[in-house]
Amino acid sequence: MSSSIAGIIAAIVIYLGGMLYIGYRFSKRTETVGEFYLGGRKLGPLAAAMSAEASDMSSWLLMGLPGVAYLTGIADAAWTAIGLAVGTYLNWLIVAKKLRIYTAKVDAITVPEFFSKRYHDNRNILCLIAAVIIVIFFVPYTASGFAACGKLFSALFNADYHVAMIISAVVIITYTAMGGFMAVSITDLIQSIVMTIALIVILYFGIQSAGGTAAVAANAESLAGYLSFTQIHDAVSGSASRYTPLMILSTTAWGLGYFGMPHILLRFMAIEDENKLSISRRVGTIWVIISMTVSVIIGIVGRAASANGVVPMLSGSDSETIIVRFASLLAEHSFLTALIAGVVLAGILASTMSTADSQLLTASSAVSRDLMQGVFGVKMDKKQTLRVSRITLVLVALVGVFFAWDSTSSVFRIVAFAWAGFGASFGPVVLLALFWKRSNKQGALAGMIAGGAMIFIWKFLVRPLGGVLDIYELLPAFLIALAVNVIVSLLTPAPSREIQKEFESIK
Description:
single chain; 1% strand; Sodium/glucose cotransporter
């Protein structure tokens, strides 16, 4: 075994071992289902901020986003990043505090449970539909994380994609099942630090490898439309096409997804002191802006490195491995640089694991707590509930592994679809539940179903028609779901006085 491979493996093994150790430590402190799914609402402001953003960014940050910038230039990647940055800030600003107070008042520890308790849905229909939606969209989302791990090790070691993907999944499943929410949150905090180190190291090394900032700029300027915010580069033909205002609106609509992301909303619900959320908002927003900016620049640097023959010219979904290529190049210099490269690759693992663990936990809660206990009324004691929660988590993960079996799938596209699903299904419901007293159970249910259905309808039936209809499905689905929620609420009886008084008491 070469020293470069040994250094990389050593760094990754140490990192994975640390994640498993954290899971083991928190398994000793996790005794109730509230602690397993929400950490007993004891999350500090820094951990809340960084775990929320680390679980949000996923492998998309270190693979999907630089891959898009590598192929097409600034426009698509930058407008997506701008939408996400604005969405991050607004979510912390207008949703976080009120959701924390409201969920504590009604004693809800999952998003579906909040919907049912907010509208006093004693039949738990809202809980049922929300739980089903979580399972539907989190399975492919989790699968994208497993796929990213498989691609990472396959590209790096020429390892079998399926073996690498399964090993990664086993590690994620193990520490999440052992330690629950607090293990996930603390590992996410550490993972955000590792991701930051990876971005900084690759940015510096990539620029040096590509010949310096002048060479990177010269290459980007030589590609038609590559540095434009209103044009997009076609890597196949070498030409540029217009990036229209409608496309910009469609792309920035990514930011709407934040209002409906269950794994992010859970961080708001879990924070120990809602008065410290302003700290979380500032830390989280600044980190998101900086990390996405660096990620886009790395894609541009990678294209220059390919043009100069430093790394191979990449096409299609292979462009998502540009950071892996740089790390492999870095590892060739010495054992020390190989260790650094291992940290970079651990950063990619971190970006994947920080999202996959949160998604597994949320999907598990949807099945074991919301469906089994909330909807079907299965009675279990404390130990049985924890056992079922862990078993459910493993079963959901196995389904995710099945969906990740195709090694040619694009991380960016899978994440985009699942993101749209949650944004349209839950986003309007969350906003109206928190800020509109007149919203009712019928409106919330109709809006949730309309949002989820429109994602599929627009994605597979409307968008292929092209023209002005070729826009990201989140935008039309979100607006339709919002409209349906409002219209149905107004056409049906107003909430009871009891519900309205409860709403008014949330200051």
